[in-house]
Fold these 2 entries.
Entry 1:
Amino acid sequence: MFCTPSNPTGTVFPENTLRELGKIVLEHNLTVITDEAYEYFTFDDAQHFSMASIPELRKNVITNYTFTKTYAMTGWRISYIHADEEMITQINENIE
Ligand SMILES: Cc1ncc(COP(=O)(O)O)c(C=O)c1O
């Protein structure tokens, strides 16, 4: 699990780093959970890149987002995840 862009440091993991990590994820069939709440909050020349955009990792990545940051909807407590349909089904089955 990791957060990019990071809170509180603002660190943005570069695309090439995430692609390299993706190779390890595929090799070992791992599941990665990412927190990308600050996807639109990058500074200087940093570019946000989501591992979920790598087609081969479709079944390996669960990405978390929140309206709080992107749409300044603090207090609404609305967030959402992006994942493969099979993964979403499993997550839904385990929500109480
Ligand atoms: C990196 C990160 N992810 C997720 C959240 C959760 O956001 P929310 O306010 O929608 O619960 C926060 C909140 O500060 C955050 O900093």
Entry 2:
Amino acid sequence: MKKLKVILYFPPESTDKPFTYHLVKDFDIVFNILQAEVQPGKRGRLTMELQGSEKNIEEALEFAKSHGIGYRPFNKNIVRNQGECMDCGACTAVCPSGALYMDKKSWELIFDESKCLLCELCIKACPVKAIDVNMFV
Ligand code: SF4
Ligand code: SF4
């Protein structure tokens, strides 16, 4: 059995879908909601602790992703080294969720962590290795 704390980010069209029902019924996951900010028709955020087999947790998170629900496990995040970044924009071209984008006025890179899907595509795309994944317990 594995326990994982994760933040789930719901787009407006998904906040009224029965995601937690599927966690139990389809993936046999026991969950504990640690924090909830969900309103119908608006972007929502659920902080949960999931308990289940490693395979079932992985499949449940894939299920979430396939329904447009982003997630961020507590043991991993994407970090950008602002000192190394030269705001070239290369990472924005591969970012599937719009978490990385250029500020239209300053042309500086913006990172909206709440939209990050942790796909790590930006790490490979950065020519100066200014993006990395940070693992923590
Ligand atoms: S990990 Fe993926 S979703 Fe997150 S910022 Fe990088 S490319 Fe975008
Ligand atoms: S690809 Fe690297 S250097 Fe270019 S904007 Fe993204 S983080 Fe900055």
